[in-house]
Amino acid sequence: MNRIGDEASRILPDNQSDLIVSSTGRAWLVGPATGVEVTELTPGTTLRGVRIGTAWLRPIVGVEATELTDRHLAFDELFSARLARRLADALWAGRFDDELARLLWPRAEADGRVAYAVRALASSGAPAVGVLAESIGVSARHLRRLVERETGLPPKLIHQVARLRRTIDHAASGTHVDIAQLAVAAGYSDQAHFAREARRFSGLTPTALVGRR
Fold this sequence. Notes:
There is one protein chain. The chain is of the alpha+beta class and 213 residues long. The protein has helices at 57-61, 75-78, 81-93, 98-104, 112-122, 129-136, 140-151, 155-172, 179-186, 191-202, 206-211, and strands at residues 2-5, 8-11, 17-22, 27-30, 37-40, 45-52, 72-74. The strands form 2 sheets. It has a 5-stranded antiparallel β-sheet with strand order 1-6-3-4-7. A two-stranded antiparallel ribbon has the order 2-5. Helix 5 (112-122) runs antiparallel to helix 6 (129-136), helix 5 (112-122) crosses helix 8 and helix 6 (129-136) crosses helix 7. It starts with a strand and ends with a helix.
């Protein structure tokens, strides 16, 4: 990410977290979001950052991901002074890569069950949590706890956010969008269902959301 902003931005949930540095000198983590965030940047501010894969949040930060949900935390609240400084410098210089990530977090390893569950939940043919849990070999209750601990998000929300994101992407690929048809194609039960989730996650009606794509 490398953004220059001069107006308020509407940031929708996306099942990800971000490590961000700013030209103002700030460096912080944006935890997984459960709703829309409207933020305003001072004109001329530059942001640079990197995304954290959903299943990697707890292994990288070292705390249960539920403690990071809907929060912004400075690097020095999460990491040692040395790691925080090295991370911020690398992000600002555009030198962050997989090799550096392994050096900064040599023992970090995502739980394979969570990574698999996140991929399945985010897919267009996402299975029910109970079916997914059975395929992994755990109970539905255990899978919910495991996914929330590692990602900061419940399985159902991961599925809902991914569906909304796919819907927006699908709308962006066409020149004329019929909201009712879009809702059905995306897997919503009807247009009203799409409208409820659009408002929940973006604060906008489906028409306004699609129009801002």
